[in-house]
Amino acid sequence: MQQTQKGNIFIISAASGTGKTTLVSRLLKNNSDLRVSVSHTTRPPREGEQHGVHYHFVPKENFESLIEQKAFLEHANVFGNYYGTSIAAVNQLSGQGFDIILEIDVQGAEQVRRTLPESIGIFILPPSFEILASRLKSRATDSEEIIATRLAQAHYEIEQAFDFDYIVVNEDLDVAEADLLHIIRSGRLKKSAQQTFLTNLLENF
Ligand code: 5GP
After folding, report:
1. What predicted TM-score, i.e. pTM, was given to this entire model?
2. Rounded Cα gap, residues 106 and 156, in angstroms
3. So where are the chain's domains?
């Protein structure tokens, strides 16, 4: 990896069912400079989800105690469960020079923007409401009631897209992945991300 001063932080948000998790997994698979911060949640694991890989699944009391200890960069209540990004996880990855993805909801994104204004916000949009609705239904991991709540929430979440730096439409996974990669690459090419490299280069000239 080219030496960077510190990794960039990319906030990636979307209404649920937009394909955000699939896109993030693809990015991680193909980019060794990139890491995702594993969040804490009080939501029970879905089938196939592993503790410490997809989330740190913790009881509500533990989560509330972490809030009191100010262990979170941001935290929010999403669909009745707590979700949060731990400061320690982000600092560790950032210190190692990785670019970090925070796959979080719009409430969390707003908190991170305030605390870390240099972070780069990306909002992923579905091509249409109808496509989002059919993707959520075909996922079949959630009850009808949860799907209805998520759709009702989607309009509010998509309205927040105006507060993000970049908008990516996920109509075709390959195109959306390439768009995300361009954003990440351009973040890496910023002068602020290459200060150490530039200084070292000049010292040895
Ligand atoms: P899910 O339960 O489907 O995994 O996630 C529900 C929502 O919570 C998604 O929008 C997801 O991005 C968001 N989320 C996941 N982790 C975090 C987190 O650490 N903080 C916040 N604010 N939202 C999160």
Report:
1. 0.92
2. 9
3. 9-204
The answer, yes or no, to whether residue 116 has pLDDT greater than 60, is yes
Confidence tier at 5 by pLDDT (50, 70, 90): low
Ligand 1 atom 8, closest CA:
105
Q: How many CB atoms neighbour CB 186 within 10 A?
A: 13
What are the tens digits of pLDDT across the range 141-182?
778 888 888 888 899 999 999 999 999 999 999 999 999 999
For the domain bounded by 9-204, which CATH number is listed? 3.40.50.300
Ligand 1 pocket, CB under 6 A: 16, 39, 43, 74, 76, 78, 83-85, 103-105, 107-108
Q: How far apart are CA 46 and CA 176, in angstroms?
A: 26
Given ligand 1 and candidates 20, 105, 143, 150, which is best to mutate, with the most ligand atoms within 8 Å of its CB?
A: 105
